[in-house]
Specification:
Low-confidence stretches: 209-236, 298-332, 446-455, 541-546
Distance between the termini: 60 Å
Shape: globular
Largest sheet: 6 strands, mixed
Number of strands: 16
Strand content: 5-15%
Number of domains: 3
Number of helices: 14
Order of helices and strands: HHHEEEHEEHEHEEEEEHEHHHEHHEEEHH
Radius of gyration: 24 Å
Amino acid sequence: MFTDPSDERDGERVRWYLEDYAEFPADPTPAIAQEAEARLGELGAALFRRVFEANRDTMRVWDAAVGSLPEARVEVDADPGEGPGLAWELLRDPGRDAAVALGAGAFVRTHWRAAGNPRLPEPAGDRLRVLLVIARPGGREDVPFRSVASRLVRGGAEQMQGLDLDVLRPATFARLSEVLHAAHNAGRPYHVVHFDGHGTWLDLVGADLGPDGAGAGGGGGLAGSGGLTVSPLIYGVSVAGPVRPGQHGYLLFEDPDSQENQQLADGPTLGRLLADTGVPVLVLNACRSAYSEALSQPVGTAGEAPESAAGEGDPGLSPAGALTSPADADSTLTGDVHARIRAYGSLAAEVADAGVPGVVAMRYNVYVVTAAQFVADLYAHLLAGKSLGQAAAAARRALAADPVRQIGAVPVSLQDWAVPVVYESAPLVLLRPPDRAAPLIKLTPAETRTDKDGAAGGVPRPPDAGFFGRDETLLALDRAFDTQPVVLLHAFAGAGKSSTAAEFARWYQATGGLDLPGHPEWPGAVLWSSFEHHLTADRGTWCCRY
């Protein structure tokens, strides 16, 4: 049994360093950040000593492994006990002053006793099929629509031969289920579902949510909830799957049928869907998707309400079977690792426990530049035939080798390579490509111009400096085309209508918006006609969608 060498003060210092420092790097914060970096190393070294210097036998294990560490696969099979879980990614060899996760060929978390039996796909082909879910339930008030996706589509994707990137439209859980089942039934399941949106950690039953959006502490949302507000549905929010008492991790999908355009999905619900549709990898750049908090007492694991209970009965009552006493909790959790995962584990751990072979998640709130660069490198190495653990290790090393992050006006050095957490039940190789090396990918804040831009349908090329901004308009256009065949974009002269329309046309085609259902080989077409010169009505078609 290993105890966490850090304390509450260390936890807050690390959180500040990884989540806040880069936004406000004015004096004296650089000096405080250096102290936080040093403390990260000390915590990793302390954890190493507790693991490998516990006795002579464990030290001999490390001495035998360290010589071949670059080819070694390090697996951490840790029972999620009471607490947020150890930051195993910080494990540091004090003798070499080197992080184990950066030196190993693969450094992953695993769970040998998963409730669902992980099914490893047979590696085949050379094209990586990725379904990107961009959930922005807050609309124009949310984070920028293409914050991560634009860097992937206009930067990384064009440098990665074999990447097929589709965007889920609309970004609802029901549509996700529909698309994944259709792909599975067609014999072409997606390799990866990539969720780009909000993650939250809350207790739906105990939060005392009301239809006015006020939680127990009042106000219009929940602290740490990623902007969650309340719709007047069962338990105060729209939920995909059964409602469980106790604190759990959730992803926020869009739900146009609810008042607040939000629907929560927890780990077991999402994990069952992915396992049933043959999706082997889930990538989450949702904030804190690998996070769990220490609870004073686990709840809701003895007799969780059956699925039929969700959405039925008195919304003011907890589901039947909720644990009511410490004795009940202790007796239920003893000997049942799955109950401990459901009680204490993060969303990522719950998805893995449901039988999904590979999950990549974030332990802390993650900056866009970090998430985009990490995911681009991850996909590049998966396309080269590496396992998920090997690809993630290479992506971590790339973040460590280039630690400069420009979040605000001043670039800072940030050791955020330990934020991604990887769950891999066994070496998971998706593709068997011909001899293909992973390209060196360097993403930029804007979509850079390429020779392909504007080649189809006469669409104007983007500005040489790249296309910046207008995310709220692009999101509105994207969502409008979910339900309407014709959309009018209007604004004052010189406001940028043409540039925005051209950028949307490029984006929509590149992300599968014009694909013909059932015929993925046909990418759709964009026809561009300018109104700068007089045209007759029959020639005034801007965009055709079939």
